[in-house]
Structures are given as C-alpha cells and as structure tokens.
Design goal:
Layout: H1 2-30, H2 37-52, H3 60-70, H4 72-96, H5 102-131, H6 136-149, H7 151-170, H8 179-201
Length: 207
C-alpha cells in the first residue's frame, strides 16, 4: 500500500513539475519583448487558475496563447499603474539608500513599508483580476484588503517566495523552469483560500 502510494505521489509530483516547467518556459518566451510582459503575466495566472479549478489536462501552450491574445490590452489596465508605482518606489528607495540622518531614516522605513504593501498589491491583484470581472480600483482595493486582513496566510506566501528566491541564488538554472510559474501557483492558491473566507463574510459581486 505504501509502495503504491509512493509511486502515485512520484507520478503526480512529476506531472506538476513538468506543467510548471513548461508554462514557465512559455511565459519567458512570450515575455522576451518587454512590452508583452504584462499580457504574459495575466496569461500565466489564467493558466494557473485553470489548474486550480481542476483543469490540469489543458494544452499549456495553446491555452496560454489564447489568454495572451484575449487579455492583451486589458492586461495594461491592471499592470501599467502597478508598473508606474513600482518605478517610483524603486527610485525613492535608491535615492534614500545613502542618507543616514534621522529624518531620512524615518522616511526610508516609511518607503519600505509602502514597498511591502505594494508587493502584496501585486501578488493578489493578478489572481483577483483573472477570477472576477471588477473595476481596476476595486481589484486593487480587494487585493490590499486581503493582504492586510489575512496576515498569517500572506506571511506564509512571502516566506515561500523568499525560499524560491533563495533557491535561485544557489541554482540559477532554475530560473528557466520554476520561479514564475511556482510563484503564480502559490499566489493563486493563497488568493483563492483568502477570497473564499472573505466571500463568506462579504460577498464579492462582479461588475
């Protein structure tokens, strides 16, 4: 019995590893022109959402391409504001990194706090965007609400991402096979779990 269970676990694990590696490679391929990065991110989360719903046998490349085309322009609605805020935060952090006075230290930690909130906003916005038909401001609001009101779940997600980044530092070749797809899968599962609990307290209606 244990031998059969082990064999089945190995098969399932191998299948998931193959799926994650394939969609990660497809994502990188479609992201080579930098202006297609946002449509590629949305397509990645769409594919992962299909898996989360139990559709694990879908053709990865064809499904990715379909969502890439379908959401090409819509992806910029969700992604461009996030890109702009990310650039501003990066510039602020770089400009304050060499300052050591007390006033600048307070400002630096304030920027770091905003950067953490921004990271939560990015991680949760894309799973919510592909799951619900909501206005962009409401997607952002819901993403921040879940990120702040579900601290333990969010912390486990951030720690998991930190482990992935750490693994990349030791094995850079993993960059081509797992990081983006695995982070998308973890973010989607975390968001689905949090949204289920949030939905039971306050129903989410599509617009």
């Amino acid at each position: 019995m244990n031998k059969r269970f082990f064999s089945e676990a190995v098969i399932v694990g191998t299948e998931w590893a193959a799926r994650l590696a394939l969609v990660n490679l497809v994502f990188l391929l479609f992201s080579i022109p930098i202006f297609t990065l946002l449509p590629s991110i949305v397509a990645l989360f769409e594919v992962v959402r299909k898996w989360e719903k139990g559709d694990t046998k879908i053709p990865v490349f064809r499904t990715f391409l379909s969502f890439f085309r379908k959401n090409f322009w819509k992806s910029y609605l969700i992604g461009l504001p996030l890109t702009a805020v990310g650039i501003i935060l990066f510039i602020d952090i770089q400009s304050l990194s060499g300052q050591s006075s007390a006033g600048f230290l307070v400002l630096r930690y304030a920027i770091y706090s905003l950067a953490i909130l921004f990271a939560l906003l990015v991680l949760y916005s894309f799973p919510i965007f592909v799951q619900y038909t909501l206005s962009i401001p409401r997607v952002y609001f819901l993403a921040l609400t879940i990120g702040v009101t579900k601290p333990l779940v969010t912390l486990s997600l951030l720690l998991s991402i930190a482990v992935i980044i750490g693994a990349l530092l030791f094995w850079p070749a993993l960059f081509f096979f797992f990081p983006f797809s695995l982070i998308a899968l973890l973010a989607t599962k975390t968001a689905a779990h949090s949204l289920q609990k949030f939905h039971s307290d306050k129903p989410i209606t599509s617009e």
